[in-house]
Specification:
Distance between the termini: 28 Å
Largest sheet: 3 strands, antiparallel
Structural class: mainly beta
Number of helices: 1
Order of helices and strands: EEHEEE
Number of strands: 5
Strand order of the largest sheet: 2-3-5
Length: 78
């Protein structure tokens, strides 16, 4: 089983510490709002060593959110 590396999304409403704490790394000082796992162009997950997951189709997208300010949540039917 390959370990996936999530992809960070930096938005103004994001936390500067929560996702760094979750990942066990030092905070970058930037607002880290979302950590994405799965397939979503152009931010698809990679295997921890930087390779694309060979022969693996990731038909999902999981987002971990870390909000420091209020925001609205949206759902997308497709």
């Amino acid at each position: 089983m390959e370990r996936l590396a999530g992809r960070l999304q930096h938005y103004d409403w994001g936390s500067s510490t929560a996702l760094a704490d979750l990942r066990g790394v030092e905070p970058s000082g930037l607002p880290e709002a979302e950590l994405w796992f799965g397939a979503h162009r152009p931010r698809s997950s990679e295997v921890v060593d930087g390779r694309a997951p060979e022969g693996v189709d990731l038909p999902y997208l999981v987002k971990l959110l870390a909000a420091d300010r209020p925001l609205s949540l949206q759902t997308h039917p497709d």
